[in-house]
Amino acid sequence: MDPADIDFAYKYPFAPQAKSVVAELNLNKIDHDLLKFGRIRVEEALNKGTIEYKSTPLLELKKTYLISYVYARMLVSSLGNKSYAGRYAIAEARRCASALKGDSDVALFKVCADLNIKARKKGDMFLIGFVAFASNVPKNSGISLSNQKLEGGEISLGKDELVKILEEAMFREIRKGLPIDTKAIPAEVVDYAKSMKIIVPEIEIKGMHGKTSDIRRYSWIEKLLSTPIGDVRHRTVNLILAPYLTNIRGMSAEAAAEVIVKYIDRCKEINPDTDVNASYISYQCRYAKSRSLKPMALERAADMLKGTINLDEK
Hints:
The protein has 314 residues and is mainly alpha-helical. The protein contains 15 helices and 4 strands.
């Protein structure tokens, strides 16, 4: 097996070349040491929001870490939380981007080809098509079309800017197929996932008021506030969170908006593709407060958020 192929697969485990390397390793049974490496990978992704990339000359270590990617995908899928899959994919994409920043132009163009993005170099700049740029430019990245040079249907970018574009494309590629249906995952892996330690940071809510009975009735919203979601965020804000914080918790519109902004920021770590912003949140909190709106019922909320989070009153 060519060391260069192993090195590329180690850096970019989503790539077709990586899949070929894994296939050559002929894995036909669960390796508990590798399963442990996969667990570490997932816990680092979910608890820290990133997976550290480390350059190493050791081929066996590269093989081990590559295979841990396969186990990690199964483990994160076994956790039963769709939002975890998105957060995990973001962390993996960040690791790949970190490797790509220090890699050769040859490797960069190979990654582009694997992502079906046509790119070429002109002087010190990199050129990609307008459609590829527009489809992959991440929001809040600081990269704006108005600041880019457009010539002949191509966008001119520095290497760091191109890597940011590719990071978004890598996220989408890694996100494909996640979560894996647990029926397709070995029962041993699913059982092992139950022992994983996932730390979900709490959002501090100051000045909480309201009747204890009402707050207990809406305890499922507290669960929602501790679980970032990657979809349905507009309706979650105006139908659930704004009415709950302002009229059940008794917070001011300003204080409620501050809590929701922090929550949406965490949701963006899972899926940054949203236009829910501070202005929208502030308006919904003021509106809910002025109209004394109550949150939607648990049954309706569970249906609205089906496939995103499992809500219950426990």
